[in-house]
Amino acid sequence: MFRNDGTISKLRISAYEALMDLIRNSPADCYTIVQKTTMLVLQKMESLFAVEDSLVTPADRSQLRDMQSSLCATLESVLRKIHPEDAPNVSDAIMNGLLRIMLGVGLDSSAVMEEALLAVSSVIDCKLIV
Fold this sequence. Notes:
This protein has helices spanning 11-24, 31-52, 58-81, 87-105, 110-129. The chain is mostly helical. The chain has one domain (8-129). The longest helix has 24 residues, at 58-81. The N and C termini lie far apart (36 Å).
């Protein structure tokens, strides 16, 4: 689940930033990839919830928080690209995941909370457009 080299030279963060740029700048004919990315991000969030309680060391918890933050930011990018008619199909699952992250993080990481709240804002924007 965690790559040993993910934190070296900010590899994981750079990979998520590249993914977000690809989503943001994707042409209309790549929309199915945006949809699939949404589902993959949600699956990754679920897998992180499954291991969250088993993490003991502060380094593992820090890696988890970094990944959660990146996933929230990725969801925000996806939601800004998703078609308004598709938003209701994924918004409940996204909100459930974001709420679980926010409840699990608490005051533990303001960066994760900030990214989650930005993603919530994107969900609200999608819901208002529909």
